[in-house]
Write a structure and sequence with these properties.
By secondary structure, this protein is mostly helical. It has one domain. It is built from seven helices and no strands. Helix 3 runs antiparallel to helix 5 and helix 6 packs antiparallel against helix 7. The N and C termini lie far apart (45 Å).
Length: 243
């Protein structure tokens, strides 16, 4: 559990550094300005962002509810990894432990807010490219006609496809770090949780510890799905365009 908490804090550092660099350097805005974004694309992206925001907040409320139950009902030795290095290495009085538990719960909330909204931000950025590739494919099929005869300027389609591909490549230069970090972190934590539950039955000796292990397993599987789906979507659109 200490390894899992440590990797999540490391993941936050990667996410925040990547997003700060992309925004502060102006590279993200510069790339997005090269895209021929239409009003329809803006409307679809806005709806998608609202959907992701609602979904993320719904998941977070559920996770916070389970987390609050865990903090209220668990024994101190069942959540000492959250307070580490206090309690585990630095002894505290009972009152200090209560104060530390409240602070730890606030930090725990911030950890989940940072990770899941960073995932959501990455997916919104990728959705812009997904929408553009989809729009290009639709217009190309419309120009191709029912009988397979092309009626349009092929050079314009090729130019737009190259513009989108270069933009994806530039975005990937600084977004790949967060995507890879998210995938590796969630995958490693999922394996750790399954390994612990299968080979260390003493780790789930009570109802509370079972809930905690299942909670972290579900959270990491959810994060893994978000990381993997982002890459699958954009690679699928680029692959179908190339074909």
């Amino acid at each position: 559990m200490k390894i899992i908490v440590f990797t999540w804090h490391g993941l936050i550092s990667v996410f925040q550094t990547t997003l700060y660099y992309a925004s502060h350097s102006g590279r993200l805005v510069k790339v997005l300005k090269t895209l021929p974004v239409t009003r329809e694309c803006v409307r679809r992206t806005r709806r998608y962002a609202l959907f992701l925001t609602a979904l993320t907040w719904s998941l977070l409320i559920g996770y916070m509810t389970v987390g609050f139950y865990f903090f209220v009902n668990s024994k101190i030795d069942e959540r000492d990894y959250i307070l580490s290095p206090f309690v585990t290495y630095i002894p505290l009085s009972e009152n200090e432990i209560r104060v530390g538990s409240v602070i730890a719960f606030v930090v725990y909330i911030l950890v989940f807010l940072n990770v899941f909204f960073s995932h959501a931000m990455n997916k919104v950025i990728l959705y812009v490219f997904y929408s553009q590739f989809k729009d290009l494919k639709k217009k190309f099929r419309r120009a191709l006609g029912e009988r397979g005869r092309f009626n349009g300027d092929l050079s314009l389609f090729r130019q737009r496809h190259q513009t989108l591909s270069r933009a994806v490549s530039k975005i990937d230069d600084f977004m790949k770090h967060s995507n890879v970090a998210g995938f590796v972190c969630h995958m490693a934590n999922t394996i750790l949780m399954l390994y612990s539950m299968m080979f260390f039955p003493e780790a789930t000796h009570s109802f509370t510890t079972v809930v905690v292990h299942l909670f972290w397993l579900v959270v990491n599987v959810n994060g893994l799905a978000l990381s993997a789906s982002a890459g699958v979507i954009i690679n699928h659109m680029v692959g179908t365009q190339c074909m």
